[in-house]
Every structure is written in C-alpha cells, then in structure tokens.
C-alpha cells in the first residue's frame, strides 16, 4: 500500500473556498430556475435552499469521497480506520454538523497532528488525504 499524504491547512481552506463558490452558483441557479415558473411556494424555495446548503457536503462526501472543492484540489475524505473506504452518509452528516458548529476553530486544529485531522474529522472518524495521482507541495519541494 502506498504512503498516504495529508493536505495542509491552506489546501483545505482552498477546498472550502471552492465549495463556497459552488454553493453560491447552485443557489443562484436555483433562484433563476424558480423565477422561470409562475407559482413556486415560499416553502418549496426554502426546502430547496436548505437541501442545497445542508446536504451538499454530506451527500458528496459519502457518495463520491469528497465535495467538488476536494476534487478540484485532489483531496478525498475517507474513513480513518480504513482509508480506502468512503464515509457512510450518517458519518458524513455528523462531520458536516460539527464542521458547521465549530467553524474555523475546528479547521485550525489541522496543524496539531500527524494526519492533519480537524476536530470534526476526529468526531466523525474521518481523514482527508491526497489522491494517488495528485502532487503535493511537500513532494514538489523535495
């Protein structure tokens, strides 16, 4: 099995910022789509936006191993005990909830351990790794 490499704090922040852009695009697209119809209830609009905001991260993380931001930066979210496996949905949802509640505080803990796990990674038993083919800054420096 090959050596796993773990992303730095700046790389994880870049992935997060890419996801913020993705969420904004999804919300703008949804708003535009809803404006095409005559009668869309406020409840339907609210449900759509809640679905986009709260389920984007856990659905993508459990189904594909990461969000679009993770994919753009060559990262994957995996189970800590079995890094070859993706997180199950309930663990991805738990990870997202803690990440949202703790905010930047959780992300800042990445630098304090060998696997660069944030608090929300510990609580969800997850780890973020570089994909096999991705090139890390550390590898380029060597």
UniProtKB/TrEMBL annotation:
Record keywords: Cell membrane, Membrane, Transmembrane, Transmembrane helix
Positions of the RDD domain: 6-124
Pfam families: RDD
Membrane-crossing residue ranges in chain numbering: 15-34, 46-67, 87-110
Membrane-protein topology: Multi-pass membrane protein
Domain of life: Bacteria
Database matches in InterPro entries: Pra-immunoreactive, RDD
Location relative to the cell: Cell membrane
Keyword Plastid carried by entry: no
UniProt xrefs under PANTHER family: MEMBRANE PROTEIN (PTHR36115:SF4), PROLINE-RICH ANTIGEN HOMOLOG-RELATED (PTHR36115)
Protein name (record): RDD family protein
Source organism: Fulvivirga kasyanovii
Phylogenetic classification of the source organism: Bacteria, Pseudomonadati, Bacteroidota, Cytophagia, Cytophagales
């Amino acid at each position: 099995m090959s050596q796993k490499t773990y992303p730095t704090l700046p790389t994880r922040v870049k992935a997060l910022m890419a996801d913020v852009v993705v969420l904004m695009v999804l919300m703008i697209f949804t708003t535009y789509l809803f404006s095409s119809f005559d009668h869309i209830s406020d409840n339907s609009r609210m449900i759509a936006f809640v679905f986009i905001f709260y389920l984007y991260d856990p659905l993508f993380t459990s189904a594909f191993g990461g969000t679009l931001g993770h994919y753009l930066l060559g990262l994957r979210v995996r189970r800590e005990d079995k890094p070859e496996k993706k997180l199950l949905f309930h663990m991805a949802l738990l990870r997202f909830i803690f990440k949202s509640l703790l905010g930047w505080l959780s992300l800042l803990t990445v630098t304090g351990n060998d696997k660069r796990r944030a608090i929300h990674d510990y609580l969800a038993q997850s780890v973020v790794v570089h994909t096999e083919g991705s090139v890390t800054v550390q590898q380029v420096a060597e």
